[in-house]
Structures are given as structure tokens and as C-alpha cells.
Design brief:
homodimer, alpha+beta, Protein Yojf, Chain: A, Trna Endonuclease, Chain: A, domain 1, seven-stranded antiparallel β-sheet, five-stranded mixed β-sheet, DNA-binding, NucS_N (chains A, B), nuclease (chains A, B), hydrolase (chains A, B), endonuclease (chains A, B), NucS_N_sf (chains A, B)
Chain lengths: 231, 231
DNA sequence: CGCTGCATTTCGCAT
DNA sequence: ATGCGAAGTGCAGCG
């Protein structure tokens, strides 16, 4: 990895056109040829970048460009998408290269998969007498997160989200419509379960007879097993 | 901005738990206190990070940690969300600080806004005799991208996307349902316009009587004006 | 290999 | 502030 702090301007032409006026920024060149342009703020997202696979060409500026103060030109191209990124460097303030090696990668634990596993194990959170039929119940238009039965043995289809948005309600509605045509399943009750449900989503869901269930992830995890804490 | 290349392991506990095994990585400390952990590959997304506002505390390791080879500990916390990120540093290979100043920011030009402008100008792409009523036509549940009339003077509502997905069809469907209840507008014909329309979205749209229109951005831009090229 | 759904999404705009 | 839609989204899993 090569790290360059430089006064530069940047132009990008691809799916959109973008321009960065002259300022001091970090240019990060990764081993795979990709380039990231970072400022000293914002989030983790670079101001501009070029994703691999791409090739970078360093070149001398023309006389005209030199008159504008450009001392160095970096042209980054992506063969497939014809994207083009040009870094016009005016002054290099720092330049260092480092051998990092291959990263073993991130180990994740959590999110929707875990939530689904927990709810499957604690299926009575749906209501007394509920039983799990199966997770990822396959339908013609995709898998329903959880299929269960209520105390009376009627089908219950659960759509799980971390954040319950209107999209999730639409998705569940499509599933329910389809599943209710299946005489082996009908009538199917819908449950929209999430850690947090947006008011609009709740309104839409309840308007369609879909039950809303707010899940307490920490509590569910606490019931599950109190041993898997990180610290 | 402070740049540190270090052999380190990283633990994150927040909405999920994540762990990075010992390896050499770039630690980027931004002026706003945020921290990014980058490897020498992947995309523009860091392996791990902490978003601002957050505070970072450097501390000495305990004797036990020192035995494991840890020479320095960075603890990053976010007051509001109680997220916690811990960097266990084993060896510092590079450490430099740089004054970058405030970035003037990115100037964008393109994507959906431009596509909307172009289609408004070239409204006959919808069909002969079509006329623009207005862009961002406001309804109770949000703005319709384009409202037009066809040759016979009937209303046409256009939903624009760069990539035509099933979500866009659902969105347009909600608009149409609402607008068709308005006697001044009804009957309203729906047009789903995008640079690329997914087969599933097309099927759903056509099943609901919504017309699909694939737009050629480059051609539309070419007709519009051939002067605004960057290079 | 293409499609689908998730994301510690982030970002920007409008209410 | 808050909610909502878009992103040069990236990424992983699965058919």
C-alpha cells in the first residue's frame, strides 16, 4: 500500500461525472491497483475512488497543465466499465509505501441471520402455542424467513428485518398473497418482526391485517446464552 | 489526519460483534475523531471503522495483555450508540500526522436527476404527442417523478429509476392507486422508465398494466447537448 | 455467472 | 430533527 498526502484536484467520469476542487487529501493506493481519495472528515466513504480491477498510469503533465501548477498526473482506468479517474497533483507532502500482506478478513456475528436463529429458537415470542415449521420456507417468489403455526395450527409467515421499513411489508404482502392461494397453507397469518418498526410501515402492515412484533435483540440474546460476550 | 501502519487485531461490539485477527493494516485517524481500519485490498469500505462523533483513548496494556504481545491499546467509543471498538496494537511500522484542512467537497452531476431533466426535455420518448405537465408532481404520499399527458390528453405518471427494480414498480403502483382516485387526473396511465429493467420488475409492471420504457442515457445526453463532456 | 437481499450501510433532500 | 429514497452502492449466498 502506498500512501500519498498531496494537494490535488480529482475528476471522475463514469456512471456520473464528479469533480473535486484543489485541496490537500490522502491518496491511498492499494495492492490490487485500486485508488481511494480521502479527506479528513466524513464517514468511511472516500470522496472519490476507483474499484478494482483497474490500472493506474502516472504521467508528466503537458506544458499547459504545468502552468496551472500540476506537477504529476495519475490516470486510473477500469477496462470493463470504461470508468476514468484523473488525479491532478500539485504538490506531494508525503509519500510512503508499506507491505501489508493478505488480510485474514473480518469475522462477523450478528445481524438478521442471528435474529432469525434466535426467533426460531424462541418461537413463542410470536404468541403462546406457536411452533416452528421451518426457517427460509421456499416459495415461488423467494424464501419466507420463518414459517410457523399458531396454537390453533394455522399457518403464520414471519418476515424479519433489523429495521422494519415499508419495503418489508410489501415483501411480506407478496408472500402472503401467494401462500394464501396454496390450500395446504391457507389461511396464512402475517407477522412483521423487526428490532424497530417505522410508523409508516406499521400503519401499512396493520391496515393489511399483518401483525407487528418488535424484537429486543439483547434480551433474546440474553435468554439464548449469556456466555458469548466479547469482553 | 494521522496514519498508522501497524500489526494489530481489532474487536468491534455494537449492532453486531466482529473480530479482525492479527495482521498488518492501515489505521486512519481523521480529524473528527473517527477511525478507519483498511487492508491492502477489497473495496473502498474499510474492514472496520467507527463513525463520528466518537472519542478515542490510547492506553497502556495490562501485564497480561503485554504478555500476548500487545504494546498499545486504542479504545474508540461512540457516546450515543454505545458502540465500542478496540484496536490491540502489537507493532507500529509507520506513524505520521498531516494537516489537511477542510475539504471543499464533491461536485456531482448525473444519475437520476439528470435523467429526469433529459426525459422532461425529450418527453416524446414516452410516445408521440406526449406533453410534460411537470416534474416532481406532488401527491399525498410523495412526488411522482414526471407527470405528462398523452396525445389524447390523458394523464401519464412516470417513475424513473437508473435500475428498474421491483421496488420501483411497487412505488409507482401506490402513486397510481392514489392518483386514480383524483377525478381531475383519472384515468392515469403508468410508465416505468429506467436505463435497465429487471425481468421480474417488467413482469410485475406489465401484469399491472404499467408500461415499461428502457432509456438510453448516452443517446439522450447526446441529443441534449454534445458539449458538456469533461475531457 | 447472474439475480437477490442485506448493510455497523452512508448521503442528501424534503418535511 | 427525522424520515425516506438513492447509491459510481459493495458483498455474499444461491440458483
Amino acid at each position: 500500500m502506498r500512501l500519498v498526502i498531496a494537494k490535488c484536484s480529482v475528476d471522475y467520469a463514469g456512471r456520473l461525472s464528479a469533480h473535486l476542487p484543489l485541496a490537500t487529501r490522502l491518496l491511498m493506493l492499494k495492492a490490487d491497483g485500486s485508488l481511494l481519495v480521502h479527506s479528513d472528515g466524513g464517514s468511511y466513504k472516500p470522496l472519490n475512488w476507483m474499484s478494482p480491477p483497474c490500472t493506474i498510469a502516472m504521467s508528466e503533465p503537458s506544458d499547459e497543465q504545468r502552468e496551472f501548477g500540476i506537477t504529476e498526473l495519475w490516470t486510473v482506468t477500469q477496462g470493463k466499465t470504461a470508468d476514468l479517474l484523473i488525479v491532478s497533483i500539485h504538490e506531494v507532502l508525503h509519500d510512503s509505501a508499506h507491505e501489508l500482506g493478505v488480510d485474514p478478513g473480518l469475522q462477523k456475528d450478528g445481524v438478521e441471520a442471528h435474529l432469525q436463529k434466535l426467533l426460531a429458537e424462541q418461537i413463542e415470542l410470536l404468541g403462546e402455542g406457536h411452533r416452528l415449521v421451518r426457517r427460509e420456507y421456499m416459495t415461488a417468489i423467494g424464501p419466507v424467513d420463518i414459517l410457523a403455526t399458531d396454537a390453533a395450527g394455522r399457518s403464520v409467515a414471519v418476515e424479519l428485518k433489523r429495521r422494519g421499513d415499508i419495503d418489508g411489508v410489501e415483501q411480506l404482502t407478496r408472500y402472503l398473497e401467494l401462500m394464501n392461494r396454496d390450500p395446504r397453507l391457507a389461511p396464512v397469518q402475517g407477522v412483521f418482526a423487526a428490532q424497530e418498526i417505522k410508523p409508516q410501515a406499521r400503519t401499512l402492515a396493520e391496515d393489511r391485517g399483518i401483525r407487528c412484533l418488535v424484537l429486543d435483540y439483547d434480551a433474546m440474546r440474553g435468554i439464548d446464552n449469556a456466555d458469548e460476550r466479547l469482553f
